[in-house]
Structures
1.
Amino acid sequence: MAAVICGSLAFDTIMTFEGRFADQILPDQLHILNVSFLVPTLRRDFGGCAGNIAYSLNALGGTALPMATLGSDGASYLDDQYRMLFKLANGSLPDKKYFRVGSAFYLDSQVRFHVKKQFEFYVGVNNLLNTQPPRVITGLPGSVTGTETAAGTYDPIGRRFYSGVRLKF
């Protein structure tokens, strides 16, 4: 039986301190505690609450289904190494396309006309080429319900025209 693991997926930054904290802190000066430690090694591992629990459950022979949020480094997190943890019910791996969001090129254009110093007229078009955004399945991190894309990054509306005037008094 599979378990759905809710939480976050993140990179854990692990620092190694080769000493004892007790040797660095003076008991009679705790009221003015100010310390810094030399950390000779630093490594980045897969982590986050859902990631750590899912990894441990899979290592114990269970089946974990992480349902998690990702940050801006999510694409690098879900590379081939981590993808191995997401086996489907038939034992196969999900297609890579579900772990990547493609790029999109948008061309916006605007023309401005100044009439004297008080008037400025402008016309323009956003998404001139009517580029369709990459699809992000609704319910996944970054997806806005109903747009099926990361609406904060990509244009879910399509080409649109606008015009306006500015008046300076």
2.
Amino acid sequence: MKTIILSICGFCFLLFNALAQQADYAQLKNQAEAQYAQGSYARANELYSKVDKSKLTPAESRWVEFRLADSSWRAQAATQTSDTTVYEKAQKQLEELIRVVEKETDRDLVWTEAHESLGDFFWNLRGQMNWGTAWPHYQQALEWWAGQSDINRARDRYLKIIFKAAHPPNADANYFYAYYGNYIPLDVLENALKISTNANDNSHLNFLIAMTMRYAGGGYEGGRYRVPDQFEDALKAGKQSDWYDDALFNYAEWMNSVGTVRMLEDGQLREQPDYVKALELYRRLVKEFSKGETRYYDLAQQQIKNITEASLAIGVSNIFLPNSELQFALNTRNVNRVDFAIYKFDMPREVRFVSSPEAEDGEGDASWLQRISTSGRSPVKAWTKTINDSQAHEPFAEQIRIERRVSAGYQQSPVSQERSGAAEAVHPIGLERALMTVAAEAARGIPDVVGATVLVGCIAQWSAERQHLAIR
């Protein structure tokens, strides 16, 4: 009888002790997890360090090992120390927790959490931003959560991983999605959109899908034709969405540079910028946001100016020999007509690369052409070009040939040869000859005489009354 009573007492003692230890662990775990949720990783690590793992089940012991490794590197990341010992130890511990799980059926919560922690480690750690190493860990965690039966919890964790992969918490103010090449695969983003139930999350995911299609390309089969639709869906939540201004600006940029896909008569597909739609979106942004509310305000204002203002640019692709046909490139926007006039001038006598006779060599500027007066001169050649834009605000570009050819007849100047080793005209010559000579000198190293002014040798004036540009 005494033996039976002692056995029962011993069993009760062991049971009570086990329950007490279980209660102590549960209490410590709850406290530690509360600290972890608040971002107090050092305190969470301290609490988990008090747990006696020898008294725990294998599953509980494995969780404690994970949290100790995970919280240790996160706590270290909050400091300014350059010591990498803690990071290296935590990385090895997390990798070991993954390595010991050999069968796919044995992959548990700790295995998944270890992958996510390593993803954060390589992606969020200061000085790392290693997307190529981080993404495979995030991908493993996403695939595990995608197969779980607890739908609500799985949804929350799946979306959380995607959003921090797209926008790392430690990114600076200049960061934007895909800044580090961190493109999330389209199928993953589309899966996330299917399970999302929140309007703000839907807006965010549509924005990420559009941006992935925009940057990653993939052709029309990859969904480039869907980019405008995805941006439109991203805008549906309105200004209450955290990504509304991002979607507005990047949608405008897409329409301004790529636009919509159109089928040509031969059946080929062509991307056609839609400047009217882009202008609408830029104006919408500056109307709905004040300066300082969005980082895109000044950029949008500049793009509105670029699209709507009249502009003209001229350039030459090469130098020309005597008796060759001369041509230059004309680029305009929002201009209906351009008047051209060509004048002769004597380069050695009239061109001055310094603003005053007292100026030293090397103090010249690029305004030498504006110092040549056309007053009282008769043009050698004058003509007008009418430009018919097929689409509002569409840039116009054309190679224009000058019919008159320039004959040989200039001589070498010893002084010029000593200074630059280049030929220089010594008699009054036409604009074509001047252009040819200046271009040749520029090609041999004389600075500040190349570009649009070298090619055309003109002054462009905008006439608000006549609504055209006159080149002189």
